[in-house]
Amino acid sequence: MAELHEACGVFGIYAPGVDVARITFFGLYALQHRGQESAGITTGDGRELRTFKSMGLVVQVFNEEELSFLKGHVAIGHTRYSTTGASKMCNAQPIVVESSLGELALGHNGNLVNTVSLAEQLEESGERLETSTDSEVIARTIATAPGLDWQTRIQNSLPRFQGAYSLVMATPNALYAARDPLGVRPLCVGRLNGGWVVASETCALDTVGATFVREVEPGELLVVDENGLRSIPAVESTNRALCIFEFIYFARPDSSIDGRLVYQARQEMGRHLAREYPVDADLVIPVPDSAIPAATGYAQESGIPFGEGLIKNRYIGRTFIQPDQRLRQVGVRLKFNPLPQVLEGKRVVVVDDSIVRGTTTPPVVSLLRKAGAREVHMRICAPPMRFPCYLGVDTARKSELIASSMSVEEIRKHIGADSLGYLSLEGLLASAGMHRSHYCRACFTGIYPVPVQLEMDKLVLEV
Ligand code: SF4
Fold first, then answer.
1. Could you tell me the domains of the chain?
2. Is the CB of 240 under 6 A from ligand 1?
């Protein structure tokens, strides 16, 4: 499944005596799945900030030379997929802004829904925006907010931001982290060598050897400096709206969110699917990688053997090299290769995480049939996606979402499957584990947790 893109991954560390740039590099490496367009790290050494960022994967952006340039005891890092602003170098993060208090670096995961009005207010007060991202709007709003110190300026600014934000910020002396009052995107905090680490997902804490402490609470601002960690309830949090797609697709299966291991939530989705859409079949296979846990759950619940019928090129990243005409015709095989010896003559249940535009599923079904599958029964770990996301996920416009204009039966015919079953919203919510009011599920229901400007364009700030 390659139709949905997460907005970003963020990482931050305050740890005197530790090579914070190197730790941040490996933190970002663990968060690569959240954004593959650009990566960057800013460090603070008590006097100044140093930043290095570029287009590409984390391993392509950094080498030893850059890491040794990034000195200090505080660092933030960012991997980016664009939801507001085009994919280009000037939009890479961390974003660094100047103010009367000195420099502030900022990395953002999420999407604001009031970017335009905030940008207008900044321009009216004489601020000039250099990028086309809502993240710069956030950074400049904080930099120009009233207050004699950064904590006050951040506290004064956070209530003005509407939408989704998990933020990491650095000054030469301190690390700050904040999460929007709905808690749309995950953010957690851990300990490392007497210092503190924040990250989009717990898998990044594990990777750098940090110990998970807790989630950053919705509406909370964390300040870490020479006096240790302070928690400030910065914005009142009355409703929760954690993105349910973190469980379906975005988060790594070895991450835990709200105490729930994502792997187990996905397995449970598969079990629910098996109960909701049973079928006589010989084999259950996943569309790798994200649907593997759900396919094992389907197999366990149904008693149908689990197998692998599609092998994914695991080394594929975001490439800026376009395939030529002949390779385009090979299409989906650039990503998946089927195993005819496994599929030949079988009735196959294929578990996938979601269908968004409906462009990638038909070639997968056709590939399986060509490899000898006798029947192909698609099972999807999410309900039909009928509404776009405005909170940090690049879904598609409503008109591009296949389920917004086709019934399930029409989609089944379109993708060429023998049967098609979408997990119910109830089954999905039960799999994630918390009460339904805990989650944003707007892309299925059209009921958004914040007022949104319909059909907002991700390039809204492009000139
Ligand atoms: Fe997540 Fe969908 Fe809500 Fe966007 S609309 S935050 S993808 S649940």
1. 9-238 (3.60.20.10), 264-314+323-432 (3.40.50.2020)
2. no
pLDDT tens-digit series, residues 200-232: 999 999 999 999 999 999 999 999 999 999 999
- Tell whether ligand 1 has an atom less than 6 A from the beta carbon of residue 243: yes
Catalytic residue, chosen from 8, 203, 381, 443, is 8
260-261 and 256-257 strand pairing: antiparallel
Pairing type for strands 283-286 and 220-225 reads unpaired
Collapsing DSSP to helix, strand or coil, 419 comes out as strand
- DSSP symbol at 210: P
Question: Measured between alpha carbons, how far is 13 from 20 in angstroms, rounded to an integer?
Answer: 7
Query: Given the CA of residue 395, which atom of ligand 1 is nearest to it?
Result: 7
Give me the residues paired with residue 102 across strands.
99
Give start and end residues of each alpha helix (H) in 360-407. Answer: 361-370, 402-405
Based on the residue annotation, tell me whether 203 is a catalytic residue of this protein. Answer: no
Please provide the size of the chain in residues: 463
> 390: CA distance to ligand 1 center in Å?
7
Predicted TM-score (pTM) of the model is: 0.92
The finding on whether 432 has its CB within 6 A of some atom of ligand 1 is no
Q: What is the dihedral of CA 197, 202, 206, 209, to 10 degrees?
A: 10
The answer to which of 83-97, 135-149, 190-204, 353-367 has the lowest mean pLDDT is 83-97
> Left, alpha or beta for 58 (phi > 0: left; psi -120 to 50: alpha)?
alpha
Q: What is the rounded CA–CA span in Å between residue 204 and residue 11?
A: 8
Tell me if residue 128 falls in helix, strand or coil.
coil
| 8-14 vs 419-422, strand pairing mode | unpaired
- Which of 440, 447, 450, when mutated, tests ligand 1's pocket best, judged by the most ligand atoms within 8 Å of its CB? 440
pLDDT at 436: 86
- 70 Cβ below 6 A of ligand 1: no
The full DSSP string for 50-69 is EEEEEES-HHHH--HHHHHH
281 alpha-carbon distance from chain centroid: 34
